[in-house]
Batch of 2 targets.
Target 1
Amino acid sequence: MTFLLVVLFVALGAVAVAYAWSVYQKMMAFEVENPRIVELSGIIHRGAMAFLMQEYTWLAAFVGVVTILLWGALGFGSAFAFVVGAACSAGTGWLGMYVATQTNGRTTFAATRSAGDALDMAFSGGSIVGMLVVGIGLIGVSLTWLFLWGAVETLAAFGMGASSIALFARVGGGIYTKAADVGADLVGKIEAGIPEDDPRNPAVIADNVGDNVGDIAGMSADLFESYVNSIIAAMAIGVAFTSLYGDSRGALGMFGASFPLFLAGWGIISSIVGCLVVATKNPWSQIMFEYAGKIPHMNKILERIQSGDAAYALRVGAVIAGIKMIGGSFILSMLFFVTRGFHVFLSVTSGVVAGVLIGFATEYCTSSAYKPVRDLARASETGTATVILSGFSLGMKSTAIPVVLICLSTLLSYWLAGVFGVACAAVGMLSITGIALAVDAYGPISDNAGGIAQMSDLPSDVRKITDKLDSIGNTTAAMGKGLAIGSAALTALALFVAYAHAANLAAIDIMQPKVVVGLLLGGMLPFLFCSLTIEAVGRAAQAMIDEVRRQFREIAGIMEGTGKPEYEKCVSISATAALREMIVPGVLAICAPLLVGFFLGKGALGGLLGGAIVSGVMLALFMANSGGAWDNAKKYIEEGNYGGKGTPNHSAAVVGDTVGDPFKDTAGPSLNILIKLMTVVALVLAPLFS
Amino acid sequence: MTFLLVVLFVALGAVAVAYAWSVYQKMMAFEVENPRIVELSGIIHRGAMAFLMQEYTWLAAFVGVVTILLWGALGFGSAFAFVVGAACSAGTGWLGMYVATQTNGRTTFAATRSAGDALDMAFSGGSIVGMLVVGIGLIGVSLTWLFLWGAVETLAAFGMGASSIALFARVGGGIYTKAADVGADLVGKIEAGIPEDDPRNPAVIADNVGDNVGDIAGMSADLFESYVNSIIAAMAIGVAFTSLYGDSRGALGMFGASFPLFLAGWGIISSIVGCLVVATKNPWSQIMFEYAGKIPHMNKILERIQSGDAAYALRVGAVIAGIKMIGGSFILSMLFFVTRGFHVFLSVTSGVVAGVLIGFATEYCTSSAYKPVRDLARASETGTATVILSGFSLGMKSTAIPVVLICLSTLLSYWLAGVFGVACAAVGMLSITGIALAVDAYGPISDNAGGIAQMSDLPSDVRKITDKLDSIGNTTAAMGKGLAIGSAALTALALFVAYAHAANLAAIDIMQPKVVVGLLLGGMLPFLFCSLTIEAVGRAAQAMIDEVRRQFREIAGIMEGTGKPEYEKCVSISATAALREMIVPGVLAICAPLLVGFFLGKGALGGLLGGAIVSGVMLALFMANSGGAWDNAKKYIEEGNYGGKGTPNHSAAVVGDTVGDPFKDTAGPSLNILIKLMTVVALVLAPLFS
């Protein structure tokens, strides 16, 4: 039976991979007839792949050591699942980067034709990335589950493998991209006065490579990890709990374990439909549109999408995927849990709805279309300190709504279907990861395409098209970010409960001094972790600044365009710094739960996880939203508001943006993974502590 | 028996008050023979007192409403204790401010004679403030205890009264002082280019009033609140637990309740001895020195103190008070708990030691004598954004050591003497509040004295003396700040345990979804609270900036010194803003536990408190230390390092300092009170939820 189910899940995963493959084939058929674009995108491609290879070499050693330790401590099953999880995560990141760096040049060239072509190309790349994550995720989890003969408790090691890789990818990628970005901006834009993405800037290639390393590989690894861990947590809880909530059909437990996989599988179908809404040139999309045209009121929506309103198309795609997901989860829940089916369905829905609403809240706080960011831009009139303080308090305040939404979803889903309901809410929220990631990844691809346009001296309207796509991407990306944080919180909570069961903890009582101590230490770790990553970015950026300054000083004719900058030196500085600096935070995340578990016991470890989730979620929201708001306030001023470029107001906003960069691209996103990684490490090692 | 004990405690409290009174008499006998100083200190005195009267009028209404509600809900005892606690806190703040604003002018005049005279005068003021806090605290708690016929559980309402007043005083005072400070600095120093404390600056009086309102009244209320709450929490736990730990003599329970009071009483004696070490001109001090001179090796120490090394004297005073406290607690513990006495003694000691070490850690992170602040100053070389990021990550990192110390002290004292041990550690840490506050309060008095010197055109060497005292005060004040945060954490933990017992909670299990929801909401509140207070400072500062700019524009001859600035308008802007802006954060702090308790139950409320303590302690440490480090990095640059005044490095450091101001003087310190107030509100209202 398990075997048959796994065949089904693998098939559903394969649908996602096949969709990605078909889009990839079509994309590769598109010839870029501009040698400069080909050359530049080739350099970026090779730089990105080279970094990933370096990173993976290091991580292979790390994975090897941990595998041996796990084998010794917990047996072959865990070690095997860990390796497969790590490999799937690394493979997903590698493929995603590979595709994205193939897409950027094509998007640039497509933009020389029309905005529609460019959108199509960029979104193709994004949807491949998205589909690979969910496809490989579902296939990986279900095959490993089969291999382990249905031993769900061992499956957690798969999640731990994925988490470990994700943490290093996020931290390393975040450091890489920000070091290059700061170096390029500070010396190039401010000191030398040349525009962004100018080929005379030695750090320009590193900067463009960094966008891929951070925003594509990092984000993919992050969501891959959330995705598989939410499924695994729900499976683990499902096995333990379905007998309580399921009826005759659910009593076997296996139904509880397979339900999250069904949800995920249906999420893939929903995501593909959502993608097809945007990818209007896909033949499947055209068939779909033909049928949909017969539904009343749909025609207007379809027309607006086909007219090329990209922002609208992306949003409608996501909403349709969400609606399909909710509809499908209704049928699945009723089939699985009969009398309690409606309760489970509402739990799943609460997760989906909370995810979408958190996305809106994120957008409200970070988009220049709304009051908060405009107020932040106005704060630049009274100077730099005011911009910093306003962005700071905006970010702190922005924690309130998402936390309340997470709390409501938790309470509601628990009330409806117990702990299993909470786990299902997390799966529900993440089920549409495919489309969310597609919408998210298309942004950095457009950004890169713009960079290539600038560097290859294409006419300015090409850059305008890519800039437009990029700026739409910035807004829609809020959904992805909201999802990443919201799902991290729910997934961590689900993993936390799974840990408590695995460790045979009847309660994690924060009246116990050891637990309180764990709680305090856990609450402190995200602060320490942020500090480490921000400092790492600072050191790496300093090395980059020194190198760029040196090149401007020493290479003759660099400003006139006759001397060629040594791009590869900057690339290697970013890469080396990222690899060196990711070690300490990564080791901290893995060792802290271990040490507390061994020395203070499993109760204190539970407290540690609770504390880390609480302060980690708050800091992640605060940092992501402050950073996003500063970024967009600067852009808003650059559009000519409150003085525009070149005024003191703009300088003040630039400082805000620079402070926000490591917040939103390094420290903040890494926190999402930190809390999940610590929890899953605890879950995997729980047998050792109990 | 209780009656006799209370007589003893009141007598010990009276010793503190008598000491304060004798110092006050001597101080008042010192005539200021400079009419300009008298005039200026009179203006500051009246401004400060007027604000406090306004604030207390508002708070009287608030206290009235809460008293009626408490009376209805919990009976007369609680309502009475609440009023007395509020009145004691308000009275302490009022007296402290009264004395401090009498001392500042005298210190200025003393500085025209000698540095030793000035130190003596400033420290006299500080020690009066410190002694009043501990004296009134001990008298208030013990008399209320007697009045309630030993009902310790009702005594918590006394702490709630003190906490409520403290929160408003801290928030209001913090907003007042920062609005005035920013207004005076930004328009006066930066825009108009006149020096600090220049009488031509319309906001100068408001700024000097603000130092008293924030640093004297706010800090006194904060430590008063920690002091009484730690005693009350220990008494409450002592009653419940002493039968477990005490022997024959402790079995009555009353011994457990009175032990913390004995500790506090002995702390008063220790603090007075510590004060006498510094106040070498006091006749008691001279007697003490004569005896101490006979102890081997003491002579060198005494000589160095008598030679006028102020920094050394303050430190030796604090250390001697600490040693005396530890010695006394040994005797008390052995008398009370016989066989377990040594365990209780070690618990108390662990608190004292943790408090001192947290002080050192704070000093290391925020003093320009050490690497972190010097590195921060160097970061100014690469611009404003780097200063902000470095200060930010320094603050985040600085949470680690204090949290580890708090954890160690908690674990150790629990292991030794159970929950009662934890509570005793908090009392131990706070027992030397008298000297700590004396050392802390003398700083702002010196600062004010310097302001008066500047405004009355005294020769520059007078200002140099007061600046020297102020800068020594800045370093030694680290101890006070460390104490405020460390004790807040321990006191909140002790109150938290007391709450759980009062609410009959067998466990606060964070595996329960409601408790997790409480935990998340609780973790979010400090972030929201910080955001509210920082924004309040921003709004108030903006109003001040507008007013100062208007006066510079409209008042003829203001820059030449012929036109007189309208000081009182600025004072009234700060006052009105502070009173208006303190309401929302204050109400949030009181209503949040109420709402969660009523709607989600007592378990969720426990989670809320846990979450608030975790993220509140981290944020408080982070904000206080970032702010302090930015402040001292700026001063370090002003001393001529990394370019000195007027360079871009200095401008970058000034931005850091401006960002840090509301961190360290408004939001950070208010968080200490927030977590205690929420916990004590829960404790008082626990009977309603169970």
Target 2
Amino acid sequence: MCIANSVCGNAFRGLAECEDEMALAENEAELYKIKLMAPVFDKRDKLIEKIPFFWNIALTQHSDFSNYVRASDFKYIEAIKKIVVKPLALEDEECTARDFQITIEFNEIKGDLKAQHVSKVFKIEKDVSKILIKKNRTAEDDELDADLGFLTSEPVNIDWPKSYDNINPELISDKSTPEGKKNYRTGMKTFFAWFKWTGLKPGKEFPNGDALANLFNEELYPYCVKYYTEAQRDVMDESDGDSEDDSDAPLDLDLEEVNDEEGSDSKHLNKKTKLQ
Amino acid sequence: MCIANSVCGNAFRGLAECEDEMALAENEAELYKIKLMAPVFDKRDKLIEKIPFFWNIALTQHSDFSNYVRASDFKYIEAIKKIVVKPLALEDEECTARDFQITIEFNEIKGDLKAQHVSKVFKIEKDVSKILIKKNRTAEDDELDADLGFLTSEPVNIDWPKSYDNINPELISDKSTPEGKKNYRTGMKTFFAWFKWTGLKPGKEFPNGDALANLFNEELYPYCVKYYTEAQRDVMDESDGDSEDDSDAPLDLDLEEVNDEEGSDSKHLNKKTKLQ
């Protein structure tokens, strides 16, 4: 069908060059966007700190988040005071637009959880030889990961809640007993185990740690105000008009009073967040 | 839970401002990307023209495309010589990064389809009062479309294939007869009816015309080389090693010969396209 194969051949070579140029242009555009958004995110982080339970409300509103943590973790999700996702390219020119750092700050839960903030760095890796556990990996997985890159992370320390002592992997004395195995496996599925996730030991660490990291980076952090506002709207819809129940609904109480006082603020907020 | 409601109130007002600033920053970043990509797309358009059946192969490879057109349309999809999607913001500063123009060029099919190229412009509209048919629309649909905007388009003329005379809406003399109704409805579902789609008459024009436009703008055009390459790989996998069948597989024939001649070009292409 080709008039001359060399014509097609040159065209294919040219298309491959275009794909390279497009990938570079996309990275440059992404870096431009990162620099443009950074000051707005900084401003937003400071405002969010003033709103009680903001992160608990925003995270629990997202339909996917609960699939990555255990039900018992939500007590500790409620203790999250601050979440910040920063593209590494802002400080390190060696990094691509796809590398980022997630910082999570926990309030103290007396006698159970220590007040702490933990930062975890996520970088795109293309060297599949670094993957330590090859079990269940096909040659196509390797080829794809080598081409597209895959997310990796250094393990970081976090103080686990006291209530998790029995499933805390570092406190399980004997992992060989059925009981020990069971507790170890359970512990590896908690939100706290995610901080040790590396991306190099599939099946032997927190499951889908990369997907949870991407969820924070691509949805939970950039659109947190949208999720918070949706939750606010839901609460208002539920308790429409019966203010004597407000005392049982702190979130609702706050917002109702804010609305009385601040007029159409929250409607305004609703509208804007839809733009996301 | 708020220390003082005015604190929360100010925080909410500040967050609403942040959402505005983020929307503006996102549009600016998108415009920057558009300008960065434009020369690469122009270069790519010229190369694609040299590859026979490129668009037929790329479009039919996409899993969704076939959901928007009728099986009988594929004869005419095969006649597509060129597809170009251009962001309107490149030429008109009044346009947002979300407005675009799709140009499709058809080869002649003797005695059936005229050689022609048709350009259709798609713009984001926020004035829901312009929607002429409100049936099956909820107040929430209106609120959402007014906030997020919805896609609209001016109808454009295209010469329909002779073989479609019986279902060509403009040639159906009496649409009131059962036969006329049936043919009219069938005609409105062909790819050719999409060119008259406005987005203002839901239920009375080509169905999901906006989704098809977005499919061209967001997937089929930017990643066409990826789809073409996937199709090429599939054909090669199927006919691995039996070259006597190549004569029945024009696509395969071209590429096999190109590969023999051009060495690792097509592998190179495969690799690059995965970066998309």
